[in-house]
Design a protein that fits this description.
Four copies of one chain form a homotetramer. The first copy, chain A, is built from nine helices and 18 strands. Chain A has about 375 residues and is α+β, with helices and mostly antiparallel strands. Chain A has one domain: Chorismate synthase, AroC fold. Chain A has a five-stranded antiparallel β-sheet with strand order 1-2-3-7-4, covered by helices on one side. A five-stranded antiparallel β-sheet of chain A has the order 9-8-10-16-11. The first copy, chain A, has a two-stranded antiparallel sheet with strand order 5-6. In chain A, α4 packs across α9 and α7 runs antiparallel to α9. Chain A starts with a strand and ends in a 15-residue tail after the last helix. Chains in contact: A-B, A-C, A-D, B-C, B-D, C-D. Chains A and B meet through β1, α3, α7, β11 and α8 of A and β1, α3, α7, β11 and α8 of B.
């Protein structure tokens, strides 16, 4: 349970770190979208291991195959199945994990919930699971961009205490991709890379925060009450491995201000209603207001470290576990496209819901008399 | 759209600040639960206005009526309809709001989304909407307490920069209720009350953060991937009015630590697998691990302030709006029971899902031969 | 569980035959629809008891109240709560039912499922439960009529063996309402009324079938695979009390024909693609083809009869039960507006889904190059 | 949209007749179920073409592969992805279909809905789509059988006017499989086979009805109101290609009886509450009563016939279409395992829901005092 997401543009992901592969089925994709495997592959390549000197050196080509829903280059409106085969599996590397629970991993909780687990590579709790999300997100992003003019750019704004200067507007996507650490501020990026190399040398790991900006968003997307736009984004982000927090707009920092300084006054700017400041972060009452939407996500330091740690085995006996293998000392660079993908999935779903409820029907010309129900 | 929550224990809330009332329908409640209107009323009384010197002086008795689903003192297993009539409406107080958008409120976005809105009191975007949530949450809490031994306690841990000393364990519920500000640390509570009175005197407002602890949670609730326990909690919290952020466990602060300090080592404590620290906050891989689950929610300062603010009217003309009326200078004291209610709704839903998938079927004695599909 | 229906235009019904009342919450209603309580009341009046000499003489005014979601005569886009208070309750009439299970009623199954039940009037299994459906359906019908030009007309085409002459096209709604039995063929209607009076005199009951025609339906509503238009209609109809069967188009009768006679050939009629016959019943592959959609629903004879029947009591002892009270000897006349209501709910939901997926986004001007995902 | 089914045991199917393949993702499968590809394959083999002299001679091995969710022979509780590659594709055989709409097929409606379609083999509207259903149903059946003792057997009870003698109890599964036509009454089966061969010789096709019996069902599965057990079964069956009707229990025939003859009296039989007759078909008020559940499904004659038919082309011009290729003159023999699969999916979902709501929580020992909500 829990592997289906969305209400209109719905995705079902599947797959473990080991076994036949990972993938996703998209149900509800609009027909007529031009779509190729190459476009999806481009997003997967941003997520895959071994892409730079600061990620895990594991080699996984993660080649995506479109199995259905696309015909002669266009989406049919029927489910799109996207599969990626698993490779480079070394189950023998995981024999110790079968017996011992890795600290701050999902080994123990999966075992308690399901009575069993795939120990190799973490099974379903592996970050490989996000491949399906990124593949589906690539489709959602393209629809948002082509049809709605909505663009999404995420980036690392902080690794531990190394933070880039604050800014209220979205950076250039090219600037983000210009460094392997996906921080658009070159000096900060250099310091971040340095830090990551340092902790890796010690067999340790680091975390930080990813910020995401959405531009071109019209006013009116979102919903009152439970499915507020920021609520669905919060769920999407906290559903990602290693996340511990979410902020929209002024976030936790804004709670230190009085209301008189925090409120976003309205003004008429070039004929459009705009806010003078954007502490709301583009959403008010759960609905987009036409300003830039931005949010931040906290990622904890990678749980797998190459150091000796105290733990227990399946029988509950105290023991130690020594991390081995090829792991990311910092998950954030590869998490950037995942954050973008999840944001795209949430936004497209809300776009569809907004159209369905508020832009589908017309009662003009109705006299409201209601002479016949 | 967006007023239905949950997958098994599902609630549908309705109602505006003005009009016939507010309420909720609960679908999926287990049968046989002893339930009275008085118990639900007790939770609503913790939420209602006018309960103390630091909340709005508006008098709303908010009396709940059980219209269905309970018979001879026990739940039937059929939908429970809970209604609260609106009173004390003064629509004339809102004439200015019909024309002008209140800064950092939902007036503008509702108008853009729906083409119309109920200006009086904010309509559906009013915090009165949360009455239905608290009423349903009271039912969920009782089930969790009676049947599962799960208890939920929330409290204010910070107003602006006034924070109580940090603690990793839940405070006593009585200590929380002992002060009108619902902070269990008396000295801090006194300072918070002082601050709230000060800002109210200036016609200003303040925000802060609410922390929530869940005790007695068994290991195994939650799910991999999209419906992680913390993801559903994040959505639930960000769906509340005035919220801007969510953290679970070590949250944003934990991202400053290296993995070697952040990880929660396992140990065998009195025959049970426990973690030595609890930076995970009781969830690992989206599933509870049997430790205390705790999270924090950021609430912005109340948007309604009794000061003159720049805004625009419906035609887009620049104008000013002077806040009037009886408002909370700080929403947090009344938000405490709302946070608890939403947590209860999420947890009960996950309890039902966990039982359905993992504790319903038995394959013991199966030879696995599968001679017949 | 099971009291929420729909994916976009969602309704949650509540209420038992006795207790506070019955009602419905509609979530997802488009904004801007002119709506009054009188319009909804008109549909409820078609459903209520005591409306004619062939229905139960129970007097239930069933007055609906709009509690939310409508402001100044128009829908807000927020949840619409519609309540009807219960009256005329005579719980003392049901003391025998507390101990004995009525044959072919839901007494036994509710008791087994929930461990308890409201014996008075059948509780949630009472046909009073359909009031919420009819109220919500009245809203859906108005939207379909005003905005889409879709009209729905149901009628009784057979009581036991008394059937009206077959026709492939919809009768006039006025002709249906012209007789209390809601059969548009006067001679057949007279015979049906006679039959109903006869069986009532014997303390017995009768069933039959209701046919429903939908006109003005555009091609393209519905979906492949699970949510075929006829599948959702079948579910909606079989969810009604006393239903035992559903047929669309040629139904069971069509299975006697060879394919060469059953197929609907296409032709170009006045510039539009039409089928020469309509054995498909307006749906092909789960999607409307622009022809009239029609289906039939089987309603069994009323289970409550004023005759002595064998049964068991709660302890499992053999006993007898003598039906008493004021019951419909035939549920079909009052079921006609309920069938229409359910059809409206299904169609509107599919209209919203169709728009969301297939009419919301535009990729024209796209070069399909997909240089950026 | 429309390719996801179920609320707890949820499946997402994908795939077209041509392209990469077809398959299904199961989300919510209980962990610990022993499961092999061979068991699933056995069910697919009952569905596949070319299995007997009365089905299409197309050769499709339809080999299933388990890609995830199963580890060391047992289900993990995570999504199970089941894939079947497409083979034997002859797209050149479909050039005429690209331009002309086949009568009583989904060609026209898909084109109108989506603006495009895969003409080869019907794309998503092909009966190949049901492969994913049968694969998922094989898993559901095994759970029902091993853990709940519930067994499902479907069979053809009528081809056109050739009907087997009526019976209220389930036939033996082996008797059903003993003939290629899957009718457990040998003499009737022989006549059916004869009829199918006759119509095939003429290039024509036939339909009929499939009946399904479910034994071992406990009382209490199902739900009041919208998700009645028979309502969900009706939806499941009408979601199958070529279906036009559904009956549960006495169905349409029962509507000819008076209530006094139709009602199922209760009795105490060997210490258990049973009904003397079973016109209810095992469900009362939407909930199973412990008797055998049975229903019938109408399948129209195959739309593809090897005869010349009038139709129009994509431009709306009148034309003719001559059916070619290898088609089933009667879909029912291969539909039997599909009906069983859909029934299994509905029943397992309801089993999980029933447990979650009614068998998970215990309030015994509660004093009902509710001193604390």
């Amino acid at each position: 349970m829990g592997s289906i997401f969305g209400s209109m543009f719905r995705i079902a992901t599947w797959g473990e770190s080991h076994g036949g592969g990972v993938g996703v089925v998209i149900d509800g994709c609009p027909p007529g979208l031009p779509l190729t495997a190459e476009e999806i592959q481009a997003e997967l390549d941003r997520r895959r291991p071994g892409q730079s000197e600061i990620t895990t050196p594991r080699k996984e080509s993660d080649t995506v195959e479109i199995l259905s829903g696309v015909h002669e280059g266009f989406t049919l409106g029927t489910p799109i199945a996207l599969n990626v085969r698993n490779k480079d599996a070394r189950p023998e590397a995981y024999s110790e994990m079968r017996e011992k629970f890795r600290p701050s991993h999902a080994d123990f909780t999966y075992e308690r919930k399901f009575g069993r687990r795939m120990a190799e590579g973490g099974g379903r709790s592996s970050a490989r699971e996000t491949i399906g999300r990124v593949a589906a997100g690539a489709v959602a992003r393209k629809i948002l961009r082509l049809s709605e003019g909505v663009r999404i750019v995420a980036f690392i704004d902080r690794i531990q205490d190394i933070a880039m200067p604050p800014s209220e507007t979205a950076p250039d996507a090219e600037a983000v991709e210009a460094t392997p650490v996906r921080c658009p501020h070159p000096a900060t990026a250099a310091a971040m890379i340095e830090r990551i190399k340092e902790v890796r040398a010690k067999g340790d790991s680091v975390g930080g925060s990813i910020r995401c900006h959405i531009t071109g968003l019209p006013a009116g997307w979102g919903a009152p009450v439970f499915d507020r736009l920021e609520a669905d984004l919060a769920k999407a982000m906290l559903s990602l491995p290693a996340t511990k927090g979410f902020e929209v707009g002024s976030g936790f920092h804004g709670t230190f201000l009085p209301g008189s300084e925090h409120n976003d006054a309205f003004e008429n700017r070039q004929g459009r209603v705009r806010t003078m400041t954007n502490r709301s972060g583009g959403v008010q009452g759960g609905i987009s207001n036409g300003e830039e939407l931005y949010f931040s996500v906290a990622f904890k330091p990678t749980a797998t470290i190459l150091q000796r740690q105290a733990t227990v085995d399946k029988e509950g006996n105290a023991t130690e576990l020594m991390g081995r293998g090829r792991h990311d000392p910092c998950v954030l660079p590869r998490a950037v496209p995942i954050v973008e993908a999840m944001a795209a999935l949430v936004l497209l779903d809300h776009a569809m819901r907004h159209h369905a409820q508020c832009r589908t029907f017309s009662f003009e010309g109705s006299d409201g008399g209601g002479d016949e129900p």
